[in-house]
Amino acid sequence: MPLVFVNLLQSTGTKGGLEIYARELYKKIGEIGSEYTYVGFASTELMAKDHSWFPGDVINSGISGENRLSWARGELFTVSRRAKEVGADLIHGPAMLGPLRSSAPVVISVHDLLYFSHPHLMQNKLFIGPVKWMEKRAAANATRLITISEYSASAIRRYLMFPGDRIDVIPLAGRNTNEATANSVPTRRHPDLFIAIGQRSPYKNFETVVRSWAEIPESERPRLVITGSFGEDPLIPLVRSLGLEGSVHLRSWVPSEELGELFETATALIDSTLATGFSLPTLEAMAIGLPVLLADTEVFREVGAEAADYFTAGDARDLARAVLQLAADPARQAELTALGLARASLFSWDKVAHKTLESFALAISEGKRN
Question: Are residues 68 and 133 in the same domain?
Answer without folding.
Answer: yes
